[in-house]
Amino acid sequence: MPTKCQVVFQGYPNERISIRFTHFNLYVPDNKNATKRCTEVDNLSADVRVGSRLSRIDVWCGIRTPPNLMSSSNLLQLEYNTKSSKVIRESTREDIGFRLDYKFHTDWNMSNMKAKVDKKKECRFAFNSSEHTSGKLWSANYPGLYPRNLYCEYIFHGRNDQVVHIHFEYFDIEGFNQCDETTQSDFILFSNYQTHDRTNRRFCGKTTPKGPILSESNYFRMIFSTNDIFDATGFYAHYQFITQEKSQISRVKLTISSSQLPSSSLFFVIFFSFLLALLSIF
């Protein structure tokens, strides 16, 4: 007969739970299409506690292995629903079922990011150029689903003559339109000030960074905020502290193809560049 089995992970109040699946293969009859509706076949669902209620993350079936999961609170629940009989599952030659590794922890499992953790804030990381001039940063639980109801700050402190250069290699933040509160969007926000910044830039959904993000001063703050509705796999980026002289050069680039210029124009460009080089010497 169909059965339902619940696995509840309950930590201390200050703990959260991480889950990584090492094997996943749920039974699917030949006449069923698991890619359309998992609720019609054997499936596994995951819920996390958000406030005083349980919020469903997703439902998986077949060989669709769930991503790495992380709760933002101290409770995470898995529910294994079988529509098939035990006899049928055991009669197959395949290894039917799932296996996983779980971990209770009080941090965000981001020690490899080489950032200073602010113990006064729940999720705040500081990058100082005096310790590392370049490095990597990512969202909590990357490349798995990031936790819900998350508010993380990434703070950059450079020397007086430095600015911060951030380049995203991967970007998957759930959101819509302008990524504001009215759309209930998760978002990434950049600010050049410790207080409120009216010129802040938000990114989410299809509004992704089209190129490198450059700060205006030696202080830079990146905020990553998620709500209790949407899920995605977050971001992965590189950062670098560079001097303001180099940053100004990178902002202005002269790209002229010599093949598209007549010989007279090409001579003028070469002569003008040579003249500027002489003036810089004197």
TrEMBL record:
Residues 123-242 form the CUB domain. It comes from the Eukaryota. The chain crosses the membrane at residues 261-281. The keyword Transmembrane applies. InterPro entries: CUB_dom (IPR000859), Non-NMDA_GluR_Accessory (IPR053207), Sperma_CUB_dom_sf (IPR035914). Pfam families: CUB. GO terms for biological process: adult locomotory behavior; hyperosmotic response; positive regulation of synaptic transmission, glutamatergic; regulation of locomotion; thigmotaxis. GO terms for molecular function: channel regulator activity. Keywords: Disulfide bond, Membrane, Transmembrane, Transmembrane helix. PANTHER family: CUBILIN. This is CUB domain-containing protein. The lineage of its organism: Eukaryota, Metazoa, Ecdysozoa, Nematoda, Chromadorea.
